[in-house]
Specification:
Blueprint (H helix, E strand, L loop, with lengths): L23 H32 L7 H9 L10 H35 L6 H4 L1 H16 L4 H15 L26
C-alpha cells in the first residue's frame, strides 16, 4: 500500500456577495425622498380630513353638494341652497378655526420642546399650568371670582408676576445654580 500525497489546493478567495454599501449621498437622497413622499401622503390625508370635517355634521350633506357649496356658491341668488349656506357659514369657519387651533398647539409644543431641549417636554416643566392654577385658586378663594373672564385675568396675572424683577432670579428658566466661589469673567 502506497501513500500518495497530493498537494493542497490554494484556498479560494472570499468573495463578498453582499451589495456595496450605499454612499453617504445615496443615503441622504433616499432619506430625503422617503421624507418627501411621507409629507405628500400626510398632506393628502390632511386635505381629506378637512373635507370630511366640512362634510360631516348634524345634517348629512353629500360630498357633491359640499363641493358645489365650496366652489360654485352664488351668494347673489335670491333663493340660495340651504346646504350651501350651512357649508359656507358654519362648517368652513369651524374647520378653519379647528385647523388654526391645532397649528397653534403644535407650534407651542414645538417651542417648549425646543427651549427645554427635551423631546418629551410639556407645559408642566416650565410651571405654566401650576402658576396659573395657583393664581386662579387665589382669585376664587380670596376675591370671590366666579366668571370665566376673571379666571383668565388671574391666569394672566400669574404670568405677569412670574416676569417681575423681584422673582426673576427665582424663576431662572433652565439656568443651573452657580457655585459660591464662582466669579464672572470680568472680575478675574
Amino acid at each position: 500500500m502506497s501513500l500518495t500525497v497530493e498537494p493542497l489546493a490554494a484556498p479560494s478567495p472570499v468573495v463578498d456577495t453582499r451589495p456595496a454599501a450605499p454612499t453617504r449621498r445615496a443615503r441622504r437622497y433616499r432619506g430625503t425622498a422617503w421624507r418627501a413622499s411621507l409629507l405628500v401622503v400626510l398632506l393628502a390625508v390632511l386635505a381629506f380630513v378637512l373635507l370630511l370635517s366640512i362634510a360631516l355634521g348634524s345634517k348629512r350633506i353629500p360630498f357633491d353638494v359640499v363641493w358645489d357649496g365650496l366652489f360654485h356658491f352664488d351668494k347673489n341668488s335670491p333663493d340660495p341652497n340651504p346646504d350651501h349656506l350651512i357649508v359656507r357659514s358654519l362648517r368652513v369657519p369651524r374647520t378653519i378655526i379647528g385647523g388654526l387651533v391645532g397649528l397653534a398647539l403644535g407650534l407651542a409644543g414645538t417651542l417648549i420642546q425646543g427651549v427645554t431641549r427635551n423631546p418629551l417636554a410639556d407645559p408642566g416643566i416650565l410651571g405654566v399650568e401650576a402658576g396659573a392654577a395657583l393664581f386662579v385658586v387665589i382669585g376664587i378663594h380670596s376675591f370671590g371670582v366666579t366668571s370665566l373672564t376673571g379666571y383668565v385675568w388671574f391666569a394672566f396675572a400669574a404670568r405677569r408676576w412670574r416676569r417681575s424683577p423681584s422673582t426673576r432670579s427665582v424663576h431662572s428658566a433652565g439656568k443651573a445654580p452657580r457655585p459660591s466661589n464662582w466669579r464672572s469673567p470680568e472680575r478675574r
